[in-house]
Amino acid sequence: MSSVINAATVRSVYGSLFAGDPNWLADTFTAIQNAKYPAGLMGMLQNARGGTSNKSFMQQRSMAANNLALISQNSVADASSLIAQIASENQRKADEKKLQDALNELTATQNMVKPENTLDPFIFFSNGSTLDTNNNILTMADGTQIDTTTGAKYVDTSSIIQMANGAYLDTKNNILTLPDGTRIDTVTGLNLSVTA
Question: Is the whole model's pTM more than 0.70, yes or no?
Answer without folding.
Answer: no
